[in-house]
Amino acid sequence: MIVFLRGKVRDKGLNYAIIETGDIGYRVFAGENFLAELKIGTEAEVYTSHQIREDASDLYAFANKEDLELFELLLSVSGVGPKSALGVLSMATASDIKEAIIRGDANLLTKVSGIGKKTAERLVLELKNKVIRIGGVGISFETATLSGGDELDALISLGYTLSEARTALNAVGSEITDSGERVKAALKKIAKK
Q: Domain Helix-hairpin-helix DNA-binding motif class: where (predicted)?
C-alpha cells in the first residue's frame, strides 16, 4: 500500500496530478484547493490513500495527515465514496468539517455534489463521536462546549491531554459552577504555563 509520495509534479489535470518519484509517475486524485497548491515542475510531498476496487486502483493525495485521516473517516460511512469524501475536503478545512460534524451541521455537508440530506445526516450521526474521540485539532472552544460533553471532554476535544485537562480544571476555584466558565478558566490556567 502506498501511503506517502515525494517527487516532482509532472502534470496536472482537472482533478489529479502526476507525481514522478523513482522514474515512475503516479496519478493522484486531489481536492481543488490542494491541486491549486501543486505547481508543475516543483517538488511535492503528499500523504496518500490507496483505494482498491474491483475495477480500479486509485491514489488520493493530501497535504497533511489530518486531511488523510478525515478522508478515511468519511469513507467509513456507508454511501460515501472517495470522490464524495474528496468533495467534502475541497469545500472547507479539516478543522471546519470536524467542527460542523460535532455541531451536527448536516446542511454544510449537503453542499457537496453527491451528498444528499440523508447521507449528510448519516455522516454527522456516525462520525460525531469518532471526531470527538480522535480530538478535533483546531476545534473552537464554543464547539467543544456545545457538543454536550463535560468540562474534561471539552478540553480533551481541544487537543489537551487528560492529565493537562484534569490539572487545569482542578486549579479552577469551586466558586465557578457554570461548565462553560470553568472551561474558560481552565484554558486561562493552561495559557499561563
A: 72-91, 107-126
pLDDT in tens, 79-130: 899 999 999 998 888 888 988 888 888 888 888 888 889 999 999 999 988 8
- Residue ranges of E strands in the chain: 4-12, 16-21, 24-29, 43-52, 57-62
> How far is Cα 80 from Cα 178, in angstroms, rounded to an integer?
39
Closest CA to 121 of 132, 110, 136, 135: 110
- CA 31 to chain CA centroid, Å, is 13
Q: Which of 75, 44, 79 is nearest to 62 (CA)?
A: 44
Q: Angle CA(91)–CA(92)–CA(96) in degrees, nearest 5? A: 145
Inter-residue contact 12 to 29 (CB < 8 Å): no
The C-alpha atoms of residue 43 and residue 92 are separated, in whole angstroms, by 25
- The structural domains of the chain, ordered by start, are 4-62 (2.40.50.140), 65-134 (1.10.150.20), 141-192 (no CATH)
